[in-house]
Design goal:
By secondary structure, this protein is an alpha/beta fold. The protein is built from 13 helices and 15 strands.
Length: about 375
Amino acid sequence: MEPLRIGLVGLGTMGRGHLEKSRDLVDARIVAVADIVDRAVAEAKEKYDVVGFGGHQEMIDSGTIEAILIATPHPFHAPIAIYAAQRHVHVLVEKPIAVTVAEADRMVAAARASGITLGVMFQLRTDGLYRRAKEIIESGALGDIYRTTLIASAWYRTQAYYDSGAWRGTWRDEGGGVVMNQAPHSLDMFTWLGGRPSRVVARAWTRGHRVEVEDTVSSLIEYPNGATGYLYTTTAEWPGENRFEFIGTRGKLVILDDTIRLYRLDRPLGEEIQTGAHWGKPTGAWEDIPVERGNWGHAEVTRRFARAVRSGEPLVAQGDDGVAALELANALLLSGFRRVPVDLPLDRGAYDAFLEEMRAGVGARR
């Protein structure tokens, strides 16, 4: 397969990481870079033997590339992706897909209108740990899931981290805090494994940092089938953990950091409740699930993106997957700061109005 010619937009920490990780790819090759910082472009040209441009439009219009990888701060994702789609250039975008779900909708619509491939850099989906969890859930081993839990508290950040960039921790540029920058991968796993919620009742606050936006969110979750859940994420806790729980009528699945445990009930819970002896307890057993992590990460997402463009193989995550994770993030912020339940699908206009108020500095006082 002829390597897919990719142009990288954004040469910050993430962009430079993509350059390094993609060096050994066979199916794709970063052949051009674009950034407004001339020195960053010059360094990339010298080190990686790529063509350099001062902006994404110049690079896209040059005819040098077939696809772009967007690694800029997320407020720039939507306009760059839409510009590329309108010129029939395929798009792979870092998380989160955009700042608002309305922007993400426009990105998906532009991709569909032009027939280009739109992928999202959700590399945890390539990790054997989460692929195995997905297999267990889809096999029916848990039965009907009636409760979920996400504890994403391993995203600890210092004040120095937020002070390292003027855009960090601001409504104007970042559009939110932990759910917009650190936790999108956790939110993607939560929706990928447990399904898309239908309502959130959240609380958002700033507990440990001098920033405008939230560093902690807690939420009750409801699902269309009547299932319930709980979500908590923060950058202000130590020690932290990444914990997912999915509990169903046939068992319970727990993902804790790098491990998976599965409890299998001998009989369905409903039967146990209805026919069990007085003071009886269901029987079953825990088992530790062996996992082969495999060759996972950013480069694997890029490789499979290239194969999706070339031969139609499935993407790791498509535009709609980015919308799902972002919609949950937006809903958590709207509910968390307004202190009201928020239904999903999210009212796009209501969220846009909320974000403008927060950017203007009046929303938090309501």
